[in-house]
Automatic annotation (TrEMBL), chain A:
Residues 3-246 form the ABC transporter domain. It comes from the Bacteria. The keyword NAD does not apply. GO terms for molecular function: ATP binding; ATP hydrolysis activity; ATPase-coupled transmembrane transporter activity; cobalt ion transmembrane transporter activity. Pfam families: ABC_tran. Keywords: ATP-binding, Cell membrane, Membrane, Nucleotide-binding, Translocase, Transport. Forms a stable energy-coupling factor (ECF) transporter complex composed of 2 membrane-embedded substrate-binding proteins (S component), 2 ATP-binding proteins (A component) and 2 transmembrane proteins (T component). It is a peripheral membrane protein. ATP-binding (A) component of a common energy-coupling factor (ECF) ABC-transporter complex. Its main location: membrane. Its EC number is 7.-.-.-. This is Energy-coupling factor transporter ATP-binding protein EcfA2.
TrEMBL record, chain B:
The gene is ecfT. This is Energy-coupling factor transporter transmembrane protein EcfT. GO terms for cellular component: plasma membrane. The lineage of its organism: Bacteria, Bacillati, Bacillota, Bacilli, Bacillales. Keywords: Cell membrane, Membrane, Transmembrane, Transmembrane helix, Transport. It is a multi-pass membrane protein. Forms a stable energy-coupling factor (ECF) transporter complex composed of 2 membrane-embedded substrate-binding proteins (S component), 2 ATP-binding proteins (A component) and 2 transmembrane proteins (T component). Transmembrane (T) component of an energy-coupling factor (ECF) ABC-transporter complex. Unlike classic ABC transporters this ECF transporter provides the energy necessary to transport a number of different substrates. It is found in: Cell membrane.
Amino acid sequence: MDIKLQQVSYAYSIGTPFEKYALFDVDLTIPSQTYQAIIGHTGSGKSTILQHFNGLLKPSKGQVHIGERVIEAGKKAKELKPIRQKVGIVFQFPEHQLFEETVLKDIMFGPMNFGVSETEAEKRAKELIKLVGLPEETLNKSPFDLSGGQMRRVAIAGVLAMDPEVIVLDEPTAGLDPRGQREIMDMFYTLHKERGLTTILVTHSMEDAAKYADRIAIMHEGKCVLNGTPHEIFSDAKTLETYRLELPHIVRFQQKIENMMNLRLSKICLTEEELAEEVSRVLRKGRDYQ
Amino acid sequence: MMEKMIFGRFIPGDSFVHRMDPRSKLLFVFAFIVIVFLANNVATYALLLAFTLFVILMSKIRLYFLINGLKPVIILLIFTFMIHILFTREGDIIFQLGFFKVYEEGLRQGIFISIRFLVLVFMTSILTLTTSPISITDGLETLLNPLKKIKLPVHELALMMSIALRFIPTLMDETDKIMKAQMARGSDLSAGPLKDRIKAVVPLLVPLFVSAFKRAEDLATAMEVRGYRGGEGRTRYRQLKWDWRDTTSLASLVVVTIILVVLRN
């Protein structure tokens, strides 16, 4: 399911003296089955933009295409439920949305709202609890007896249980320990690959964006200022600097190596493996050149 | 939805009224509420209205905010106006339509009551619009201080009030977030039969309570680790200062009261 934003602007408190634009003329197309990262500084409009992906916010100007549906400024949008089933959003700190007596019921809440039968919902819950890395016994516990990290996993399972085609992640690993962060990001990546989930990751982490995304969009002061592949985006450190964004660790490491050894690699490397290979290749050849 | 709430909001500014001491503002409003009831004829109501307009000018608050503050009470206002129109049967009939008769006295009373409402709402709105919640509590605490003698926990009350005020926006944000998260999971708060809508409130209220209790606990811990031990021997960061503005405004209120007493029947 393609998602397309055309000339989207959004203002909070419209029609009052507190009116404030958070998005200006954003154009962004996210084709089906891509892994799109959206990065930007705090207050750049990242969180506002993601609420347009399933009709939680309606553009003040412009159009949002979600698959076949069009949500247009100034027009009443009816029956948003089918969209919300297809586009799942994992909000920041999703553990705040847990409310049921048991983990099982909470995971079943989403699918049952969309008319999935109880047996089917239960089946999904049993599958997903393992997928997010928790033992099946967890299903009978109260979500409020779990640790923060476990609650996060349950909440994610609750969104995945709706069986969405598109999943929007707003800083899904904020506040988790490094290992938990890696596990969750890897899980989303596997889902993206295996089930062909279109994945939209809103993040601060350049590392995650570099590692997982097919394309990276950069938001700055309510505008979408850049959109390209990770290699394109991270090759241009100067432009990133103007948007107050840093390069990923691995690219900064590459720059250090280049300066130290006084050489220039043919491309920007985004993983350790890539960098090691590139460096060794240059070193092996290097003797002949100098 | 929540972001449209304007009633009870503080609008920072630098006007005469903004710079008044919260104590004098509180006293002023309380006294004003009392003297409003002195008015009982055209001259006195005109005076009240003029005085209120003068205060609005002094506060440099845009009329927009005051009109907005009126919105929650507009129905009450119309209702009381209609009651007077319909049930007061004194004086000449000025309008008749079958059974329906409007008496002169009824219209008079209706208009008077409406003006009374209007000036009361405007004055109290000006108080909250020009005074930050923190200064209101500070002012209230100092004004109530004498009641400590009869063992009223004044400091604790003021603290409770400021904490409550402080967390209203936070809780509103929180409600908004949780509502959106549950809507994204297919819960529908704004459509469907009433029964379903009431059911849809549970997924909203439970997380809200959980987070409110958690916040309260965190706040208590944070206060304790920073050595909070109640009001005893506590100094203030914001010193309240009574200056010429406060004296002048209270004096002007006294003058208005005297004129009211003279002019009323």
